[in-house]
Every structure is written in structure tokens, then in C-alpha cells.
Design goal:
By secondary structure, the protein is of the alpha+beta class. It has one domain: Pnp Oxidase, Chain A (Roll), CATH 2.30.110.10. Helix content is 16%, strand content 43%. The strands form three sheets. Strands 3-2-6-9-10-5-4 form a seven-stranded antiparallel sheet. It is globular, with a radius of gyration of 16 Å.
Length: 166
Amino acid sequence: MNTSKDRMTIFKNAMANYPTGVSIVTTVDEDQAPVGLTVNSFASVSIDPLLVLWSIDRNVSTYEPFSKTDKFAVNILREDQDEIAYLFASKEDDRFAHCKWYESKNGLPIIQNAIATLQCKLYKQVQAGDHLTLIGEVTDISANDQPPLLYHGRKLGPFPSTFHQD
């Protein structure tokens, strides 16, 4: 039988072997300053209404503003935006000073040139273990048809050009 530590290691390795897209989730804090972090725990939930979810570790520096927000934006990154993904995964205090972004009409920070941005109002929060899951109702969408940035094996990389070949 596996120990708890063994199961945790096996779980982390299994999740690292599951390829995902990479997003930066953004909001503003109580002083209206932009806040954001890199996530790969993003998924669609519902078409009617349009719902998405993502999760945040309760121990990260951006937890408090996200736990108190009533809106957020999910910026799905383009295959060449790995530097921005690393920036928003770092401990850098002023992440927005080092990337191109703008404020939306909804008052949310939007990462420039993302392949899609879903602006959301908070639908529900769910405490789940050491994470908080935020479910958002999509209120505004912009998207284009460019290849996404992927996360696999604890590395970031472009979408394989051979994936859609017959």
C-alpha cells in the first residue's frame, strides 16, 4: 500500500503528464490595482449559462484578492507567450509592469495578444482541500484562431504542428 507521501508524488507526476493549456487569470484588488497569476487548472463547466472554473492554492500571494473578487478574466495564452506565463508564475511583485495589458470596459486587466479572453462575474466559490475553486459566468468573450501555449511534464511549449495533420 502506498503511503500518503507516495500517493501525493504519484498524483503530482500523473497531473504533470496531463497536457493542458495555459492561462493567466486577472482581477483587481480592493485598491483597483491589477492582480494576476498563471494557471493550468482552467476548464469549461456549462454552455447554458456560460460557466468556466479555475482553482487557486490558498498559500499563494494572490489568494486574498481572488478570494474577495466578484469578477475576473481568464486570458488563454498564445504559443509564444511562455515568458508572460513564467512572469505571472513568479514571485515578481509588479507583474503588470513587465507585460503589455490594458483595462477592459469591465474594469479588468486584460493580457494583450492572448488567443482568448473570457471576462467573468463570480458565479460561485467552492473550498476544495488546499485550493479555492472559482466558477465564473462569462459576460464578455474575445477570441482568435491562433495556436495555444501548452503545459506538459512541468514544461511550457507550443502546440505541435503535426497534431491536426491527416
